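We examine the record.

___
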Amino acid sequence: MGKVKVSIANNQTQVKIPVGIRLLVRRCCHAVTQYEGFNDDFEVSVSFVDDETIHQLNLEHRNIDRSTDVLSFPLGENGKYDLNRETGAFLLGDIVISLETAYRQAEVYDHSLEREVGFLTVHSMLHLLGYDHEKSSLEERIMREKEEAILSNLGISRDATFIGEHEHNDT
């Protein structure tokens, strides 16, 4: 079983990061690679930002002039990833999460912040591994099923933490 090194940076001051969120993000990243059956070591960078920063990134990288909840910046393509020669780990990419939006969405969807941040992390990790729900309805369904299975394995499933239908505004 491979290891996942997760570097987490807090690049915002709008929201206090609750105790346990960093550990949750690391657990989610590891759970995705484990679920997908990866045996190599990987590195992932996760940044917490505010709405203004993610809005700017969304505009710069996707030409979408609005804030969003999470952005994924994969470093690999077609299952091929750059190798960090110092660590021997493959570089999956970067995840950027707006904590402001995560807080609002947790309230709107009537579930915990942990569920929301966990969902955003798992969702983004799947993007880093090449999944894209915007390609087709089948791809979207595959991603949603994987997300829920992984979150369930972590004890933060939709059934346990969530009321209502969850629509998502993301990458």
Q: What stands out?
A: The radius of gyration is 15 Å. The helical segments are 21-35, 51-62, 99-108, 113-128, 137-153, 158-161.
